[in-house]
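REQUEST ID: PR-0412
SUBMITTED BY: lab tech R.K.
PRIORITY: routine
TASK: structure prediction, single protein chain
INPUT:
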Amino acid sequence: MSSKTLILLASHHRESNTEQFVQEIYGDNPYQLINLLDYHIQSYSYSGQYSTDDGFMNVIATMQEYDDYVFATPLYWYSMSGLMKDFFDRLTDLTTETHKELGKALKGKSVSVICAGSDPQPPLGFEQPFMLTAQYFGMIFKGVSYKAFVK
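STATUS: complete
OUTPUT:
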């Protein structure tokens, strides 16, 4: 695994099954983890106005330093977590004139997904938002790793 891997964890609680699965996959391989719980990422705003404590651009600034992104999310109601959905909605900000260069800088980076849930497998279409977002930004989509945790 590359030492330039950035994992964005989007579980709604700490020490989650998703984080455990990340550790199982990566073991002692180097990676940087951003826990989206540590950032106040607001929902997308059509006005582009966010409070000063919004952490989205801080996460994007860190992403610029890495070549390989892993989006780690639990499976909630057949989809990504709300934290991850807010983050993905905010990627729209990278298509505006103000931040377009940051969006263009994602081209050629690789993307994969780590997901934990209770179903035997993720539902059909789960990977679509990740794959299509990667495609939109010219990123390389490497697929989904999924693990079912039994309650």
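NOTES: The beta strands are 5-9, 32-35, 68-74, 110-117, 140-148.
REVIEWED BY: pending
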